[in-house]
């Protein structure tokens, strides 16, 4: 491999070459001279020491791959400062972060409303201070920031809301009833799948409700009709909503006889 | 805005304000000033959420708006202000050291809420202080107000720009799409004359009380807020520049103390205190102070004679560090503090220490050599550093590959022949400082990511421990036996406890590292700013 090509004073060109890498012996430097070989000593137009390595010296290994992603460090880092001030600042930092999460400024992505209260969430306190709803000072903000009421769908909007409320109540009760019905049939695994699908379907429908009022109107009316048709008899039979979960087990035992 | 800065801003916003604000804030940093509709369209979030997020960001001084022609309002995010969130603990701690707990809580409330009126701050702080005090004692509003006044006098808190009062002529025109906020220099620290009488209230724990009790409280609260607030519209915010000035002064004083002795550091501290209000934060020198003035303003405990003071000042002025300079002879000698030079020395010391810790003391010697001598040839480096040629070459190339040292070509002939060109090694301080600054941002981003990863890994365990604590608390409140409490505590097994311990240790270590990397960021940023303002 050719490293450098220079000119000797008054003579022909000089080539500085590196032997190809064998893998066994390390490459060395050879000075090849085209033209007058061997006659007299070679002298260069520049100070050979300026290159940084002398003739016949060992060069470092040829690197054949990119540097590693996590190279080994020869020098380990110095330990962290540890004192009263540092500990206090650490405590301040963690408290600040925790407090920020509780303020009304923290906007989390809203989770889907769960129909059945899960035990795992039961004891996790919800830390949001609900009574500190923040209202910005509208005089300091551009006018377009103020929330505007939608004027287009006035009475329709109200109807959709009320039907949404009713339908969620009915659909919650409906889901629980469906679970109980399917368990009665004795098909446990299948019922889980079905209820999951139904829950997912109901959940999806509820999301649609929030976004598009008009489409939801039609859907909700259809749902209501369907539910009323199917469960006409059962609706009047089971009227208690609160004690429903508690009683269902007992009823199941009786019903299998 | 470098990629590292944007990533760090995004992580900070996500941790403190939530996902939605993070998405919108990051989008604004990337794209610059944007009107509302474009933001809604580009980020794909609903209009209501974008509005709410922008309100939150404007409240915390992270985003400002401007009216452009044709009445379009553009919103712009300030990346550097978002990065200040890292420094909040340091600000709060400084307020604590200067103004004790009251000052600490005032600054904390202001940072938590962005901007607040003075009466709101005083009320909240008094309530918080009352809760920590013993039963029966309460915190008076007047005490909190006086601390607030002191904070305003020393410029640690300042007024926000406000909407000028509408005059008659403005009524004729239609109101503008957005108010233009402005503030006078002299109004910035004027404390309104409020007559705040009252004491802090203790918040009654209403966890297990009858449901009837909280309800009458709530209508009372809303009724209180309907009363006209005397200082309505006058909002205060924390003055971060003043805190930065304080940190800078602190580091200069400690540098002098390390180099010389306690007395000289006290003298420098006095000089800096005297020039606090008179010098702007970005001036390269303080105002010249005469030796007589300094003698008069020395703290009371120091009994050094005028002669000794003069000797110290001469010593400081002759020091090669050049922190203090002599600018004249009137009044017993006029002395200035060389702020820019001091910041540069601090930044260079940081750089040298980084090179030493990363590459070893020999590399550090070479680096310091090239820094002092400005330009050196390879042969000269080997000679001056007294390091064998091969090793010196190796180290120089290592530093070169890390971009801490650069090559300067000086051709002897117009054809730039390599054999006839000088190659000089040099350190470009500003670019090296900037490169390390970028690296600091990246490392903090990595630290935050790792901390979030660790927390997510152990989320189930954390939730379990939270639940156990909640159960314990509720049981203790209803009065349970020792045996039952023991049983509940054993719900967390010993190896789980160990896991929780090690998680807590790791998270603490990562948090502490973030705070310390932020100190380096402060030094390097101040140096970069000071150099830019000078040039």
TrEMBL record, chain A:
Organism annotation: Monodelphis domestica
Cell compartments where the protein resides: Nucleus
Pfam families noted in UniProt: RNA_pol_3_Rpc31 (PF11705)
Location of region: Disordered: 145-165, 180-257
Protein name: RNA polymerase III subunit G
Biased composition (Basic residues): 148-159
A biological process term (GO) from this entry: transcription by RNA polymerase III
Chief localisation class: nucleus
Stated family: Belongs to the eukaryotic RPC7 RNA polymerase subunit family.
Residue spans of biased composition, Acidic residues class: 209-232, 239-257
GO CC, one annotated term: nucleus
Biased composition regions of type Basic and acidic residues, renumbered to the chain: 198-208
PANTHER family linked: DNA-DIRECTED RNA POLYMERASE III, DNA-DIRECTED RNA POLYMERASE III SUBUNIT RPC7
Keywords, in A-Z order: Nucleus
Gene coding for it: POLR3G
InterPro entries: RNA_pol_III_Rpc31 (IPR024661)
Presence of keyword Metal-binding: no
UniProtKB/TrEMBL annotation, chain B:
Main subcellular location: nucleus
Residue ranges, annotated region (Disordered): 162-184, 199-231
Keywords per UniProt: DNA-directed RNA polymerase, Nucleus, Transcription
Pfam families: HTH_9, RNA_pol_Rpc82, RPC3_helical, WHD_POLR3C
Domain RNA polymerase III subunit RPC82-related helix-turn-helix positions: 7-65
GO cellular component, one term: RNA polymerase III complex
Biased composition (Basic and acidic residues): 212-229
Gene Ontology biological process terms from the UniProt entry: DNA-templated transcription; positive regulation of innate immune response; positive regulation of interferon-beta production
Domain RNA polymerase III Rpc82 C -terminal, chain residue ranges per copy: 147-346
Sample GO molecular function, one term: single-stranded DNA binding
Subcellular location: Nucleus
Domain DNA-directed RNA polymerase III subunit RPC3 winged-helix: 351-427
Subunit structure: Component of the RNA polymerase III (Pol III) complex consisting of 17 subunits. Component of the RNA polymerase III complex consisting of 17 subunits: a ten-subunit horseshoe-shaped catalytic core composed of POLR3A/RPC1, POLR3B/RPC2, POLR1C/RPAC1, POLR1D/RPAC2, POLR3K/RPC10, POLR2E/RPABC1, POLR2F/RPABC2, POLR2H/RPABC3, POLR2K/RPABC4 and POLR2L/RPABC5; a mobile stalk composed of two subunits POLR3H/RPC8 and CRCP/RPC9, protruding from the core and functioning primarily in transcription initiation; and additional subunits homologous to general transcription factors of the RNA polymerase II machinery, POLR3C/RPC3-POLR3F/RPC6-POLR3G/RPC7 heterotrimer required for transcription initiation and POLR3D/RPC4-POLR3E/RPC5 heterodimer involved in both transcription initiation and termination.
Function: DNA-dependent RNA polymerase catalyzes the transcription of DNA into RNA using the four ribonucleoside triphosphates as substrates. Specific peripheric component of RNA polymerase III (Pol III) which synthesizes small non-coding RNAs including 5S rRNA, snRNAs, tRNAs and miRNAs from at least 500 distinct genomic loci. Part of POLR3C/RPC3-POLR3F/RPC6-POLR3G/RPC7 heterotrimer, coordinates the dynamics of Pol III stalk and clamp modules during the transition from apo to elongation state. Pol III plays a key role in sensing and limiting infection by intracellular bacteria and DNA viruses. DNA-dependent RNA polymerase catalyzes the transcription of DNA into RNA using the four ribonucleoside triphosphates as substrates. Specific core component of RNA polymerase III which synthesizes small RNAs, such as 5S rRNA and tRNAs.
Family in the record: Belongs to the eukaryotic RPC3/POLR3C RNA polymerase subunit family.
Name this polypeptide is given: DNA-directed RNA polymerase III subunit RPC3
Species whose genome carries this gene: Monodelphis domestica
Recorded name of the encoding gene: POLR3C
């Amino acid at each position: 491999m050719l490293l450098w090509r220079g000119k000797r004073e008054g003579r022909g060109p000089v080539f500085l070459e590196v032997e190809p890498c064998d893998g066994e012996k390390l490459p060395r430097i050879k000075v090849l001279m085209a033209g007058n070989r061997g006659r007299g000593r070679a002298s260069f137009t520049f100070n050979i020491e300026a290159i940084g390595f002398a003739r016949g010296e060992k060069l470092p290994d040829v690197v054949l791959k990119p540097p590693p992603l996590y190279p080994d460090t020869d020098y380990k880092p110095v330990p962290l400062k540890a004192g009263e001030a540092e500990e206090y600042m650490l405590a301040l930092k963690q408290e600040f972060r925790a407090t920020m999460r509780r303020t009304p400024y923290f906007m989390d992505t809203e989770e889907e409303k769960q129909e059945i209260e899960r035990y795992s969430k039961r004891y996790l306190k919800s830390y949001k201070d609900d009574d500190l709803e923040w209202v910005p000072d509208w005089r300091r903000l551009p006018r377009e920031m103020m929330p505007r009421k939608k004027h287009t769908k006035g009475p329709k909007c109200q109807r959709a809301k009320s039907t949404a409320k009713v339908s969620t109540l009915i659909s919650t009760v409906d889901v629980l009833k469906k679970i109980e019905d399917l368990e009665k049939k004795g098909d446990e695994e299948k019922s889980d799948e079905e209820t999951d699908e139904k829950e997912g379907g109901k959940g999806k429908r509820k999301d649609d409700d929030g976004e598009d009022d008009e489409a939801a109107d039609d859907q909700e009316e259809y749902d209501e009709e369907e539910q009323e048709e199917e469960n006409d008899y059962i609706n009047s039979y089971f009227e208690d909503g609160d004690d429903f979960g508690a009683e269902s087990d007992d009823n199941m035992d009786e019903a299998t006889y | 805005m470098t990629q590292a800065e944007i990533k760090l801003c995004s992580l900070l916003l996500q941790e403190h304000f939530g996902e939605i604000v993070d998405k919108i804030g990051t989008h604004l940093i990337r794209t610059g000033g944007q009107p509302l509709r474009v933001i809604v369209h580009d980020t794909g979030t609903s209009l209501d959420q974008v509005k709410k997020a922008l309100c939150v960001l404007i409240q915390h001084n992270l985003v400002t708006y401007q009216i452009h022609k044709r009445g379009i309002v553009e919103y712009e995010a300030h990346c550097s202000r978002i990065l200040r969130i890292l420094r909040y603990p340091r600000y709060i701690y400084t307020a604590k050291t200067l103004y004790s707990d009251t000052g600490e809580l005032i600054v904390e409330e202001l940072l938590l809420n962005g901007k607040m009126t003075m009466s709101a701050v005083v009320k909240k702080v008094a309530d918080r202080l009352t809760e920590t005090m013993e039963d029966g004692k309460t915190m008076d509003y007047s005490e909190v107000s006086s601390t607030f006044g002191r904070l305003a006098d020393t410029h640690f808190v300042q007024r926000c720009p406000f909407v000028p009062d509408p005059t008659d002529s403005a009524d004729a025109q239609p109101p503008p799409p957005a108010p233009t906020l402005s503030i006078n220099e002299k109004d910035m620290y004027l404390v309104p004359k409020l007559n705040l009488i009252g004491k802090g209230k203790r918040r009654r724990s209403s966890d297990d009380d009858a449901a009837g009790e909280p309800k009458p409280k709530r209508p009372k609260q809303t009724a209180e807020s309907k009363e006209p607030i005397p200082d309505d519209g006058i909002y205060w915010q924390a003055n971060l520049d003043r805190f930065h000035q304080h940190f800078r002064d602190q580091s200069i004083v400690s540098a002098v103390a390390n180099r010389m002795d306690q007395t000289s550091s006290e003298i420098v501290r006095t000089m800096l205190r005297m020039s606090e209000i008179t010098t702007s934060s970005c001036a390269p020198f303080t105002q010249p102070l005469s030796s007589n003035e300094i003698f008069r303003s020395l703290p009371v405990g120091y009994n050094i004679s005028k002669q000794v003071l003069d000797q110290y000042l001469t010593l400081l002025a002759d020091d090669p560090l050049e922190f203090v300079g002599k600018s004249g002879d009137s009044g017993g000698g006029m002395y200035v503090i060389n702020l820019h030079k001091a910041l540069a020395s601090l930044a260079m010391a940081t750089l040298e220490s980084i090179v030493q810790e990363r590459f070893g003391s020999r590399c550090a010697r070479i680096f310091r050599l090239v820094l002092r001598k400005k330009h050196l040839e390879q042969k000269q480096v080997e000679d001056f550093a007294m390091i064998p040629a091969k090793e010196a070459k190796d180290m120089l190339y290592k530093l070169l590959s890390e971009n801490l040292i650069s090559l300067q070509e000086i051709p002897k002939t117009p054809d730039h022949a390599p054999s006839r060109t000088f190659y000089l090694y040099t350190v470009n301080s500003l670019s090296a400082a900037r490169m390390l600054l970028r690296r600091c941002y990246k490392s903090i981003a990595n630290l935050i990511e790792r901390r979030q990863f660790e927390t997510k890994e152990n989320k189930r365990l954390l939730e379990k421990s939270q639940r156990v604590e909640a159960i314990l608390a509720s049981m203790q409140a209803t009065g349970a036996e020792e045996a039952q409490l023991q049983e509940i505590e054993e719900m967390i097994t010993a190896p789980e406890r160990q896991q929780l311990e090690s998680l807590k240790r790791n998270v603490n270590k990562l948090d502490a590292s973030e705070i310390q990397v932020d100190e380096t960021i402060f030094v390097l940023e101040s140096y970069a700013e000071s150099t830019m303002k000078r040039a």
